[in-house]
Design goal:
heterotrimer; A alpha+beta; B alpha+beta; C alpha+beta; A: DNA polymerase, domain 1; globular; B: alpha+beta; Aldehyde Oxidoreductase, domain 4; 8-stranded mixed β-sheet
Chain lengths: 156, 767, 294
């Protein structure tokens, strides 16, 4: 099968690749571009661990065909911090201990970013609704909700 | 201990989280090494079969395939995935071979390949030819014990793993039942819950220069190392286990899974091999929670509530291998001993083989199956004697000095009364509980219920709880703390750093701890399980820090040319007690550290403080759980309006970490109570719920209003008075919700999960 | 390149619907259409679908619309996502039960990616959106090399994951007919957890004219290989005033409809589902009746 020349714009940087037509976005981001922060769990779109932003929307990279997002703006967890400075959400997650094993965390933070970008003042219920596609087994969710509330208020 | 603590008790951030929020944390799933091969396992399609022939020749010839292993490569050393067997003097039954002649559960691996990529590995699996002789299988205990039943293990008659045996009995239950005013009894069942951590099971192995390094999700690195060596028949010193960050746990890491296959493939290829299961494979292959299918329990009390007798029988379905089913039943039984002052107890356990994936452990090991039947039967007894259920718990729970769990153990502290008081107030018990026999009206009815429990901090004396800590000091006043809990991100290492900082009189910023566990570097430690990370390892850290403090005090005193009892340390400075402001007569901690390494006065030393401890005390964290539910009597749906659990954890070294553990346990407990279950095809034994689409764990919208509240009354044996919190969060949801359902709609459920289907059926049958 | 979960395929991008239709027709069943991918990719991963060619529709312009109102009817383009519908003012205000069926889908990501057409094409009888669209009388505009046809959604399903679509057929648009004043709808379902497909769902539409029921559409999902229209129960409402007694009778008739044949599976039991049909139908009709009087 013919490989496809593909431009991937990830975290603002351009990558020219030749990809398999059947490559999934998570495989390209993680294995070919080295973004190990893109995690995979269920592989079928039920857990949200593989969430990345494509043109600002939270999507599931494990069920996204890489070829279908050529040229679009992709943001992974690696794209949030500015150098060594964490962004507000990342700092809030640390401060509020919204992270334990951390495996769901990249996807969770990106979904939270999407949520706050769209709705800068979410309620608790709004956060629960906005993050319902991201499973976490460790935290019991309370501290994640606190972290997102705090980040939305601009502080930690 | 009343003192002003500077570091302990503070909500300081967990340093490892900085990497995690940037996606920079390494997990087995994300580790990539140069030349790494992709490993894949060939599962058996049959639940029970003899493997007559495995022909891997075509597979080996496929371009890109570097090794194929199967029966012919099996070192034939009997072992078990249950690495905790080493913690018992006589061990738990070891009944596995790497690629045995018999497969015993659907999906059991019978071969493995390593190839340069996943596509070729998949093609290679398809080229392996296997001839099976399918054997009859047994999928439940009733079938397994029949006289003509097919044997899962030829040496286990009637598929018995452990024959019915009484354990830790005392007193005369029959006499006490005869004297009881009220007897309540029931038969209960619990589910085969899956740990379901988000990182799929996986490992990386690299055989290089005569040593085998295995990156594993294990919670018990040193025990994993020993078992890998045993199973692969290589010297233990040849094996190095590294636990990077693990995105799973909750007991899953107390058993091996893919490590041995990855290890053997790497030894054959000389290249690193990663085996990462899909979620489907993970749910089919990971050893589950200890599956206690049946609990028969009977309680006898006097009309004033005095608990007289408890009789119970725990029946475990071990699945294909003995795993931890026996210890699971035993812990469950022992956990019943802790809670109430029963005059007599007679409890038995029994366990059987079936052709299911085996049982390991999940958070709350054995405690779930003790609290659910006991706390619901206590509720029933309270109703029969018309006693307030809170009063019963307050009056009859064991206290300090009371029997812990195993004979000879004594409870070191108990704050349950305070937990009951705080929880009752928080849930609004006085306003919401209308007494026994109150009939609610309407289609949607509300109720409240409670449950109580005392758990443990470390599994001594049942298990070896040997633990170590090392502090190594740099010349700038900072140090490295080396401990070996299996690090699952729970904050154990962060807590250890806070303990060390407090004892040493330095700041958290001054302590660095490697989060990756490496058995070449860490001293022997049992690892993370049985809620031991803070209590047991914390005490080793405390001791190591105290020893180091003594060394520095002595060095400082020597430099100040005074006896050591004339100096003190505050704000990282050693000074004379009777002349504290004299700047000629003080040294900073940093200066003393520098002096230790760079003193040209011929008394240099690298200050390394190592402490090895083996705790023996029984320090139970107590909890009181209160649930408020609303039951829809037409649909059976149970809405949890409030779930409040109050925990007597002695001291929260870092309240964020403690709450995090307890709140995490809450949702797993709610899942156990209401909807989590592994469903198995009863005809061929295949697991039907083998994906997150089918096996549901709670998402944020399933998260009720829940709180874990802390009561800190200290403990004389824990570090800074801390008791455990790793498992305490998961026990009380099922019994408290069951009791609340009874309060709401007058039916008692004895099977978890308490699904709407079961609730509705109970309502119809008026149970 | 270490991991590839999918089998090798060819990948094509279409510029127009008719081009996509021609391509798929020419591949005669070995090509699948890719829009959001939420159904397709998981089915390919577990081996249920093995296409050799994927034709991406998402590259076609002008299909991402949701236009209309209650009085004009609603047109949903092939590439309109569940999120587009959730955010659409027209859906929120004029089709509130359709909104309910969409907004209760837990995963934001699935709503971002998944198209409404894709959701209903998957053909699972548990689809909440499909049940509600059937209740709303939705029709599908299907383009094929042979021409265009309009198919009512309740004739679209043949069996679990089987529809009337043939190679080359593409749903270009979903059309919900205009509704006059006096039309009321309700959607209800029961799920194991909020992120699980429904155990049972009910979508209902009732039009009241001059105090009596002039039209009723009752769709029940997850109780048969296809979504069931409870026609007998619908007939019982014709021309009648909706009273509590009638609601009970109608709900029982929905449950007893010969099309309602639920099974026991990992999510629920046949008995429970059967009973819940009556409960949900009764509650939905009660909701409608309460809306009608206010």
């Amino acid at each position: 099968m013919q490989k496809i020349p593909a431009l991937f714009i990830v975290n603002g940087d351009k990558y020219e690749l030749l990809i398999d037509p059947h490559a999934l976005l998570v495989e390209v981001l993680r294995d070919e571009l080295g973004f190990h922060g893109v995690h995979e769990s269920c592989g079928e779109g039920d857990c949200g661990a593989c969430t990345v932003l494509v043109d600002g929307l939270a999507v599931l990279s494990c069920i996204t065909l890489a070829a279908s997002v050529r040229g679009k703006s992709i943001v992974t967890i690696e794209g949030l911090a500015k150098g060594a400075d964490l962004n507000t959400l990342q700092r809030a997650f640390v401060t509020h201990h919204a992270v334990q094993c951390g495996y769901c965390t990249p996807g969770m933070i990106l979904s939270a970013k999407h949520l706050i970008d769209e709705n800068p003042h979410p309620t608790r219920e709004g956060i629960k609704k906005g993050l319902a596609g991201n499973l976490c087994r460790c935290t019991g969710y309370n501290k994640i909700i606190e972290a997102v509330l705090a980040a939305a208020k601009g502080g930690e | 201990m009343e003192q002003t603590l500077r570091v302990v008790g503070k909500r300081l951030p967990n340093k490892e989280n900085f990497d995690k929020v940037q996606g920079r944390a390494d997990y087995c799933a994300t580790i990539t090494l140069p030349g790494m091969l992709v490993g894949k396992l060939l599962p058996s399609p049959h639940a029970h079969a003899r493997v007559i022939r495995v022909d891997t020749s075509r597979s080996e010839q496929l371009s890109g395939v570097k090794a194929v292993i199967s029966k012919k490569d099996d070192p034939r050393k009997v072992f078990t995935w249950n690495i905790m067997t080493f913690q018992l003097p006589e061990g738990e039954l070891q009944d596995m071979y790497l690629f045995d002649d018999i497969v015993r559960y659907p999906g059991e691996p019978i071969a493995a390949v390593a190839a340069i990529n996943e596509e070729i590995a998949r093609q290679a699996l398809a080229l392996i030819e296997v001839e099976y002789e399918v054997l009859p299988a047994v999928f439940n205990i009733d079938d397994a014990v029949k006289s003509n039943a097919s044997l899962v293990h030829e040496t286990a008659q009637n598929n018995i793993v452990f024959p019915t045996s009484p354990i830790f009995c005392y007193g005369d239950v029959e006499k006490d039942f005869a004297e009881s005013d009220v007897i309540v009894e029931g038969v209960f069942s619990t589910s085969k819950q899956s740990q379901a951590g988000l990182e799929n099971a996986g490992s990386v192995a690299e055989y290089k220069n005569g040593r085998l390094t295995v990156w594993s999700q294990t919670q018990l690195p040193h025990l994993a190392k020993r078992m890998i060596a045993k199973a692969l028949d290589i010297p233990e010193g040849m094996v190095r286990v590294i636990q990077p960050f693990a995105g799973t746990g909750f007991g899953a890491g107390t058993d091996l899974c893919t490590e041995l296959f990855a290890g053997l493939l790497s030894m054959k290829t000389g290249a690193p091999v990663k085996i990462l299961l899909t979620r489907n494979e993970d749910l089919r292959m990971r050893w589950t929670r200890e599956h206690i299918v049946k609990i028969e329990m009977k309680l006898g009390v006097k009309k004033d509530g005095t608990p007289l007798a408890l009789k119970a029988k725990y029946t475990g379905d071990g699945g294909a291998y003995a795993g931890k089913i026996v210890s699971g039943c035993a812990v469950s039984l022992a956990s019943n001993i802790t809670e109430y002052e029963f005059k007599s107890m007679y409890q038995e356990i029994e366990a059987f083989y079936t052709n299911h994936v085996a049982c390991g452990a999940m958070r709350g090991f054995g405690g779930m199956q003790s609290s659910f039947p006991r706390e619901t039967l206590v509720d029933e007894a309270c109703e029969k004697i018309n006693m307030d259920p809170i009063e019963f718990r307050k009056k009859y729970h064991r206290g300090v000095g009371g029997l812990g769990w195993f004979p000879g153990t004594e409870i070191t502290s108990c704050g349950l009364d305070e937990c009951l008081r705080v929880g009752a107030e928080k849930v609004g018990w006085k306003e919401k509980w209308q007494g026994w026999g109150s009939k609610k009206k309407g289609i949607r009815r509300r109720g409240v219920g409670l449950a109580a429990m005392g758990w443990l901090s470390g599994a001594q004396p049942m298990l070896l709880e040997h633990t170590n800590a090392t502090l190594k000091f740099n010349c700038d006043g900072t140090c490295t703390l080396i401990v070996s809990p299996g690090n699952l991100g729970m904050g154990a290492i962060g807590s250890h750093c806070q303990i060390a900082a407090e004892v040493l009189g330095i700041d958290l910023e001054d302590i660095h701890a490697p989060f990756t566990q490496d058995t070449d570097i860490t001293a022997f430690d049992i690892g993370t399980h049985a809620s031991r990370g803070c209590f047991c390892i914390g005490r080793a850290v405390f001791k190591a820090a105290q020893q180091a403090r003594e060394i520095f005090f002595n060095r400082a005193a020597k430099k100040l040319k005074v006896p050591v009892d004339r100096i003190d340390m505050k704000n990282k400075r050693f000074f004379l007690k009777d002349d504290p402001e004299n700047s000629q007569k003080w040294f900073s901690f940093e200066e003393i550290c520098q002096d230790a390494i760079y003193s040209f006065g011929h008394d240099c030393q690298q200050v390394v403080s190592h402490a090895s401890v083996e705790p023996t005390e029984f320090a139970p964290p107590w909890q009181a759980g209160f649930a408020e539910v609303e039951v829809d009597t037409e649909t059976g749906v149970v809405d949890v309006l409030k779930m409040i659990i109050v925990h007597d954890i002695g001291k929260a070294i870092n309240p964020n970490f403690v709450e995090g553990q307890l709140e995490g346990g809450q949702l797993q407990g709610i899942g156990f109570a209401l909807f989590e279950d592994m469903m198995i095809n009863q005809e061929n034994g295949t697991i039907l719920t083998d994906s997150f689409n089918k096996h549901k764990i709670a998402c944020m919208l399933d998260c009720p209003d829940h709180e874990a509240l802390l009561v800190e009354l200290g403990d004389p044996t824990g570090p800074f008075g801390a008791k455990s919190c790793g498992e305490a969060g998961i026990f009380l949801q099922a019994p408290a919700i069951a009791n609340a359902i009874y309060d709401a709609v007058g039916v008692r459920l004895r099977d978890v999960p308490m699904t709407p289907e079961r609730v509705l059926a109970a309502l119809k049958n008026g149970l | 390149m270490l991991y590839r979960a999918l089998h090798p395929i060819s990948y094509l991008e279409a510029k127009t619907v008719s081009e996509a239709s021609e391509i798929c027709f020419s591949y005669n069943g070995t090509a699948s259409l890719l829009a959001g991918g939420c159904s397709l990719i998981p089915l390919m991963k577990n081996g249920a679908l093995k296409p050799q060619v994927l034709v991406n529709l998402a590259t076609i312009d002008g299909l991402k619309y949701i236009e209309g109102s209650r009085s004009e009817g609603l047109r949903i383009g092939a590439l309109a996502t569940l999120r587009d519908a959730e955010k659409s003012l027209a859906v929120q205000t004029d089709f509130p039960s359709l909104f309910d069926s969409i907004t209760q889908i837990a995963s934001v990501q699935v709503k971002n990616m998944g198209t409404i057409v894709g959701n209903i094409t998957e053909g699972t009888p548990a689809s909440d959106v499909a049940a509600m669209l059937i209740a709303l009388g939705a029709k599908l505009k299907i383009i094929s090399p042979g021409g265009t046809q309009m198919v009512p959604l309740d004739s679209f399903y043949v069996h679990v994951r089987k529809t009337i679509l043939r190679p080359g057929d593409i749903i270009e648009e979903i059309i919900i007919p205009p509704r006059s004043e006096g039309t009321y709808t309700a959607f209800l379902n029961l799920c194991k957890t909020k992120e699980d497909p429904a155990k049972v769902n009910v979508g209902m539409l009732v039009r009241i004219a001059e105090g009596v029921c002039a039209e009723a559409r009752i769709a029940v999902g997850a109780v048969a290989p296809v979504i069931v229209r409870a026609r007998k129960a619908e007939g019982m409402l014709q021309g009648k005033k909706i009273t509590p007694a009638l609601i009970e009778d109608v709900a029982a008739a929905v449950r007893d409809d010969e099309g309602v044949r639920p099974i026991t599976d990992i999510r629920s039991t046949a008995e429970y589902r059967h009973e819940m049909v009556e409960v949900l139908a009764r509650r939905a009709l009660t909701k409608i009746q309460q809306k009608a009087v206010h």
